User: What shape does this take?
Amino acid sequence: MNTRVFRNISYGVYIITSLDGGRPTGCTANSVMQVTSSPATIAISINHNNFTNECIKKEKRFAVSILSETTKPSIIGTFGFRSGRDTDKFNGISYVTKHDLPVIEDSCGYIICNVIDKMEAETHTVFLGKVIDGDVFNESRPVMTYAYYHKVIKGRSPKNAPTYLPEEDKEQQVNKSKNVCEICSYVYEGETVPQDFKCPICGHGAEYFKKL
Amino acid sequence: MNTRVFRNISYGVYIITSLDGGRPTGCTANSVMQVTSSPATIAISINHNNFTNECIKKEKRFAVSILSETTKPSIIGTFGFRSGRDTDKFNGISYVTKHDLPVIEDSCGYIICNVIDKMEAETHTVFLGKVIDGDVFNESRPVMTYAYYHKVIKGRSPKNAPTYLPEEDKEQQVNKSKNVCEICSYVYEGETVPQDFKCPICGHGAEYFKKL
Assistant: This one.
């Protein structure tokens, strides 16, 4: 099997949110798809180890914020490379509340779902959500595709992502004149990371970068 | 609810294939996503009325052919706007057989799955497939996104698609100087459709076009 074929599946980039009791929490995701048109339902895939998985199971609802090419990349890092179990991911993030659920303001729009079914795969849960509301914030903002995140923002997939490929890590090692963020695998293109540099994806400083 | 938000979910364009006994069959789809990375599984959503749905349920396996921007658009039409119940969709289509399943040659690559679970939604089935094989035919072929299909090829969604929006049909009616294909809703940009014109999506002739 040539696992590079999985790179040819197209996605967007989303923040899936729910509640931990009353506290907002969430994670970055790419595996989101519409399942039916009428009534509208969507499916998402969330790793069993993601705190958001537990929260969705308890709350039986979730929100999808659809990211734009112009969304700050640090939002992807905050929600993708830290755990909501021990961090308040919403600290410093502007959000609005829709049907009690947090929605990222710096996005193209949102979809609110009640969980009506789920299917367990080995490492992830597929949640089926019935859409109860949704809106577009700004029709002219370009939607961020997963390809854009990889190619333009130079972002990586967390190990918990359905689309994580260990090959990517190996390929990076071929290039010896680069530095990689140990938290999110963002690649700094250059010999030396400046001391005041902050990773644009996860926000960690130069001390978290190691030479390849 | 503003259903236009569903247009902000990103997808690719795929041909999902299976077998009707020994006869190859399949349909066009956009709702395909990876669910787990290791072991690799993917989920697809197929309408209950699609003949391919029945065939996958009987065969318990399917193949995903990943379309390219350079794939002939008529392939999308053949598999998206006709039924395999009464048509041999593979007539005139080049395909190769992988693990007994038909794979479209004019594509970027393929993924072969055994069905390991399924979840029924009101009009569609979500099949969970364990990936048993997959390959890329040509790394340099650009993958077709669903946005490209809509914006560049000017393709439409069949009524059976998870992403079908009745609004799209209404919006078309605003423009009075166009002709629309009654089979696949492809819009011919011009007052009169030439007699020898064939719809680039579904292949039907000028007689199937009506003025908006």
Q: What stands out?
A: The two ends of chain B are 28 Å apart (CA to CA). Chain B touches chain A through 55 residues (CB under 8 Å). Chain B is about 15% helix and 35% strand.
